[in-house]
């Protein structure tokens, strides 16, 4: 995966902030110590930023004036077998096998170059002074539109376009967030900031902006995202709720603000002119009886649904920030040890419980964003944005040419996250699966509100299939959407499969192999690798079940494929015998878990070989050749009560073709001569010679608790692909991924 797509690395935050003498109450210190494990004192004066002092008539004159100096700163398969009717993939925590996906989380400590206070300069001096004042113990009146207008409308905050940017934002605001969490109970400044964010969001939604997004709208949303992330990563559910909801008495229930009178329209709605020069809270935000968290979620979803992100650069940035904050709000889950602790996921529960009406429209919009793959429009041409770009040029390139557009990628990640949530006990989270299930092909007969281009989606998936998030999307579509599954299976113009160099495939060069044969080779390789390393029953059963389903129709097996299939039987049979003999010597139960698992594997491989021989013997002479070549492998199981019938069919085939070769009376026959004899004898193979068994048909079923695997997996994708810094010490749902990487790193060092 290109480094440009990796998130900020999993690095322990360095001690950026040196403690200084401050006057901080004991209460503030205790709160800060509770939410911050970082090695520095939680005080807002840790960062020494000079401010200009003035004695003008404003109470906040030192804040309003610019500073004089710069800042130097799982799933399982239901498998029914005639020989193993009880053979199922037993449930276990997939998180216990983090390496089975060979997933690389992307912890690259060298990726962060700026680590010290003097190197990190994400905010300008003016912006940092404003943030210090916002987080301080001084209350900024909700009705002081001048102060809020200067804070949110003077300078646009930079966007985070790299892992370094994400790290810089985290480090530049962590001490401020400590202060903010402590002081907000008294000042309610965060609650007022949230009210301004909701007001600006209504402005964006209701006016259907076709021009530039106001700087106030972007800045307020950016600040809510930054500080919400700190709160979510360090506070309990009740404390997060308190930060967002605060004291409901901080605002008077009046439609008069700073002398600006409101009016009532014909629909009895309070109307007020949101003059950008005087930033005013929308009265409807105050009068809304819903919680502020629910209002924020409602606003975010409506922006995602209604706003066209490619109108200009500002709409693209604002839309991207909406997706970012949505991921941040849902990130309560990343801090939980597992995906089943639903009660602690404050915002996720609000979304899944209260916004069922948005499911279909949101699913379609996110999928459409992914399909369109629209990059950011050219830089804005407005005077304000041009001036900002001139004074504060881009801090880093957003993406490399090979990277997917940010909105497309984040839309996909949001969709995946919502679609893999817990389906029990009340099934409410299953609704986003139903949204995927409701998608229809725009070229089909049905039509409706959920139509998308299956052709465009299919082609995009084919182009990006090596990406793991694309594979997961394909999985969800194939599992949930029958119409899309039929579309894929009915394609008459499959793409030519071009296989690039694969270092793991070293045995020999295959110049011509069927797709079924190649699938067999890959699955056999996965099984063998799994047997030697992870020993995950999930892989055994599902890979063999796939091979069994193919075995009913596979033909013209490549010689090498036939050899690998017989060798697979040799491997599992030897391990089965070894485990069984060991159990007998030690006086243990021969039906132990390990012996039973390998017994199931032996049975499945024999069933696959039988399936090919019974239904496609004439079309697969190379498999017969391999069986003759390794005929001694099967003699040990002729009397085994579980395998006897399966072995009898194979012995029957071996005996018949061995007799035909012997009748030819060839001296030192070559491989080509033996192959010709096998092909000739196959034409006269008498039907009914082999005992018929029921067709092997394995059907995949997903467990209700599949989120125990999928949720950590999706969060690992989000961790790797979004420019949001996540501290590995707090991302508890990813612990197994992190531990696995550390183990692999240590093993490499030992070697």
From TrEMBL:
Gene Ontology annotations of biological process type: Golgi organization
GO CC field: Golgi apparatus
Biased composition (Polar residues): 69-84
UniProt KW Electron transport keyword: no
Region listing for Disordered, in residue ranges: 1-84
Family affiliation: Belongs to the dymeclin family.
UniProt protein name: Dymeclin
UniProt source species: Rhizophagus irregularis
Pfam families for the chain: Dymeclin
Extent of Low complexity compositional bias: 18-30
Alphabetized UniProt keyword annotations: Lipoprotein, Myristate
The UniProt record lists the keyword Lipoprotein: yes
Recorded superkingdom: Eukaryota
